[in-house]
Amino acid sequence: MIMYSEVDEVADVNKEKLVADFKVVVADAEALLRATANDAGEKVAAAREKIQASLVDAKVRLAQAEAAIIDKTKQAARATDQYVHDNPWKAVGISACVGLVIGVLIARR
């Protein structure tokens, strides 16, 4: 049985946050390119071409990172599903305890 460790979960959360932050950076860079589209000059044109090439590369890597995160998430879901099927009473007991704790916390308000 595959157990999904907390370290893997933290790494996945960090990857998802990194992907989200990277999407914002790419969008900002694209906006900067559009804003400077009318600026002339050799240095500006060279910088624009370099940024555009970097953006294309970054988008490809971003898509690969997203695919890796989706694969890991699916593996975790399958492992959880398998664990619940292998240990149904443990899953029911854990779920009941979590529900009890949440119910107590809500009732305290």
TrEMBL record:
A GO term from the CC aspect: plasma membrane
Protein localization: Cell inner membrane
UniProt-recorded Gene Ontology molecular function terms: ribosome binding
Keywords (A to Z) from UniProt: Cell inner membrane, Cell membrane, Coiled coil, Membrane, Transmembrane, Transmembrane helix
Membrane topology, as annotated: Single-pass membrane protein
One of the Pfam families matching this protein, by short name: DUF883_C
Name of the protein: DUF883 domain-containing protein
Organism, scientific name: Sulfuricella denitrificans (strain DSM 22764 / NBRC 105220 / skB26)
